[in-house]
Amino acid sequence: MTTLTSDSAVLVLEDGTRFIGRAYGTRGTTLGEVVFATGMSGYQETLTDPSYAGQIVLQTAPHIGNTGMNSEDDESSKIWVAGYIVRDPARRVSNWRAEESLDDALVRDGIVGISGIDTRAVTRRIRDTGAMRGGIFSGPDAALDAEEQLRRVTDAPQMAGQNLSATVSVTKARLLPATAERIGNLAVIDLGVKQSTLDNLTALGFDVHVLPQSATFAEIQATSPVGVFYSNGPGDPSASDKQVAVLREVLDAKLPYFGICFGNQLFGRALGLGTYKLQFGHRGLNQPVLDKATGRVEITAHNHGFAVEAPLEGVFDSPHGYGPVEVSHVGLNDQVVEGLRAHGIPAFSVQYHPEAAAGPHDAHYLFTRFRDLVIATQAQGSMQEGNK
């Protein structure tokens, strides 16, 4: 029997599987859904992505922490993951941009982690059985009775049915001015938005009004928007009825709409489509996606455990009356819907993250596509006004 010390840690999955390793980050207990991310780099962006709230993230790359942490690459104000699993954490930082070590950052933000386990075995377990609830118990908690540890894991809530956007969203509106020739005001519904997304939008000429996830359509209208953007975020899209209802008002008003990740799932629901939970989700920097309009394959960054249900081929009618719709992008690993485009209203979305440097810039054109859609909609409105 392995003797557990104050530096020990145990990862417990809800099926009873246990992995014993070393404590990493803060000592204590953390619970969440265990998922794996396949990026070989970019761990800082992963850790500070609000979409990972409620999830214990396992890095499939074996060596993590070499480049340390710096304030410039943060995607938000803190680390959001519920817990962190790595195989071999760096013993020293080796990068001129580093301001602190990854270990110090985990301790600072109170993140319980584990290192020194066979992360490949955990990944294979999740791929075979699907994402599971789990717990990391470190320090004195590593010595808790195994049955008690498992009980705490199985008592934790499932990810399905959780609405987590309120835990990551801003509580007050804020304005980020355009950094290029101004187009107009853009209302961004913050469901867990990343800083790099906001930077891309301001660089296109939008004055970005970041609004709380609880924003009403009246509050969106109060910004005099030329378009509306729904961001990425954590949780189950089926538990976000209020945001879907507001989005339907946006679509009814024919405001140009762009959604990414969670915003894609909510767009699907607003159109009248269903969503479902993936077996183990897509998380990482190397996901191939087909743009059906161009036939081009993009290497993209993903972080989602849910997806939209829709026919992959042909044009179909929106069940909620928004006219013809088509699946614009398809994941080539498992044929999951990765984008939607409406034909009768100025609206589209993608499931992946165009702000991330996966390809490295394969998907960046989507921001330009949205800007062009806004400008075309403005021109059409001016023409109609002139014909009156």
From TrEMBL:
<keyword id="KW-0315">Glutamine amidotransferase</keyword>
<dbReference type="InterPro" id="IPR050472">
    <property type="entry name" value="Anth_synth/Amidotransfase"/>
</dbReference>
<keyword id="KW-0055">Arginine biosynthesis</keyword>
<feature type="binding site">
    <location>
        <position position="265"/>
    </location>
    <ligand>
        <name>L-glutamine</name>
    </ligand>
</feature>
<feature type="binding site">
    <location>
        <position position="235"/>
    </location>
    <ligand>
        <name>L-glutamine</name>
    </ligand>
</feature>
<feature type="active site" description="Nucleophile">
    <location>
        <position position="261"/>
    </location>
</feature>
<protein>
    <recommendedName>
        <fullName>Carbamoyl phosphate synthase small chain</fullName>
        <ecNumber>6.3.5.5</ecNumber>
    </recommendedName>
</protein>
<feature type="binding site">
    <location>
        <position position="233"/>
    </location>
    <ligand>
        <name>L-glutamine</name>
    </ligand>
</feature>
<dbReference type="GO" id="GO:0004088">
    <property type="term" value="F:carbamoyl-phosphate synthase (glutamine-hydrolyzing) activity"/>
</dbReference>
<comment type="pathway">
    <text>Pyrimidine metabolism; UMP biosynthesis via de novo pathway; (S)-dihydroorotate from bicarbonate: step 1/3.</text>
</comment>
<dbReference type="InterPro" id="IPR035686">
    <property type="entry name" value="CPSase_GATase1"/>
</dbReference>
<comment type="function">
    <text>Small subunit of the glutamine-dependent carbamoyl phosphate synthetase (CPSase). CPSase catalyzes the formation of carbamoyl phosphate from the ammonia moiety of glutamine, carbonate, and phosphate donated by ATP, constituting the first step of 2 biosynthetic pathways, one leading to arginine and/or urea and the other to pyrimidine nucleotides. The small subunit (glutamine amidotransferase) binds and cleaves glutamine to supply the large subunit with the substrate ammonia.</text>
</comment>
<dbReference type="InterPro" id="IPR002474">
    <property type="entry name" value="CarbamoylP_synth_ssu_N"/>
</dbReference>
<dbReference type="InterPro" id="IPR017926">
    <property type="entry name" value="GATASE"/>
</dbReference>
<feature type="active site">
    <location>
        <position position="353"/>
    </location>
</feature>
<feature type="active site">
    <location>
        <position position="355"/>
    </location>
</feature>
<feature type="binding site">
    <location>
        <position position="51"/>
    </location>
    <ligand>
        <name>L-glutamine</name>
    </ligand>
</feature>
<comment type="subunit">
    <text>Composed of two chains; the small (or glutamine) chain promotes the hydrolysis of glutamine to ammonia, which is used by the large (or ammonia) chain to synthesize carbamoyl phosphate. Tetramer of heterodimers (alpha,beta)4.</text>
</comment>
<feature type="domain" description="Carbamoyl-phosphate synthase small subunit N-terminal">
    <location>
        <begin position="7"/>
        <end position="137"/>
    </location>
</feature>
<keyword id="KW-0067">ATP-binding</keyword>
<dbReference type="Pfam" id="PF00117">
    <property type="entry name" value="GATase"/>
</dbReference>
<comment type="similarity">
    <text>Belongs to the CarA family.</text>
</comment>
<feature type="binding site">
    <location>
        <position position="305"/>
    </location>
    <ligand>
        <name>L-glutamine</name>
    </ligand>
</feature>
<dbReference type="InterPro" id="IPR029062">
    <property type="entry name" value="Class_I_gatase-like"/>
</dbReference>
<keyword id="KW-0436">Ligase</keyword>
<feature type="binding site">
    <location>
        <position position="262"/>
    </location>
    <ligand>
        <name>L-glutamine</name>
    </ligand>
</feature>
<keyword id="KW-0665">Pyrimidine biosynthesis</keyword>
<keyword id="KW-0547">Nucleotide-binding</keyword>
<dbReference type="InterPro" id="IPR036480">
    <property type="entry name" value="CarbP_synth_ssu_N_sf"/>
</dbReference>
<dbReference type="InterPro" id="IPR006274">
    <property type="entry name" value="CarbamoylP_synth_ssu"/>
</dbReference>
<feature type="binding site">
    <location>
        <position position="303"/>
    </location>
    <ligand>
        <name>L-glutamine</name>
    </ligand>
</feature>
<comment type="pathway">
    <text>Amino-acid biosynthesis; L-arginine biosynthesis; carbamoyl phosphate from bicarbonate: step 1/1.</text>
</comment>
<keyword id="KW-0028">Amino-acid biosynthesis</keyword>
<dbReference type="Pfam" id="PF00988">
    <property type="entry name" value="CPSase_sm_chain"/>
</dbReference>
<feature type="binding site">
    <location>
        <position position="306"/>
    </location>
    <ligand>
        <name>L-glutamine</name>
    </ligand>
</feature>
<feature type="region of interest" description="CPSase">
    <location>
        <begin position="1"/>
        <end position="182"/>
    </location>
</feature>
